Amino acid sequence: MPDDTSAVPAIHDANPEAPAQAPVSAQPPAPTNTQGEAASRIAELRVSGNLMTLDAGLFCVFQAAGSPPPDPATGLPGVRVSLAPGLMGRSDAVSISTFRPDGWLDGTGALVRVKEGPAQILVTMLSERAAVR
User: Fold this and answer.
1) N or C of the chain: less Cβ packing under 10 Å?
2) Counting Cβ atoms within 10 Å, is residue 37 exposed (0-12), middle (13-18) or buried (19+)?
């Protein structure tokens, strides 16, 4: 009856005088992170995207009064204003100005100018999953 090491491939040198090498294991190395460490790196979010159709004009978009301020570490809850995807998010007709170049409001507001309407913007809201709405 073969021993248990017969299923483990080994590396052998063609030179019989060479020292024997240790068998190579076909098993992947054990993970170093525990499940708790991995879970702390992943945050489940609540995401809401809203398309707003606007006629020609100048608009101010801001978070409602009484909304919780964003956490300094996570930035949540967060609101972002951007061009909508598709034909209605026309970059030639819509300009968005925020205090940050990436469109996140951070408790401030955004000015949206629609030169030719109707056109759409995308308002994305992110919050922690456990946050009360």
Assistant:
1) N
2) exposed
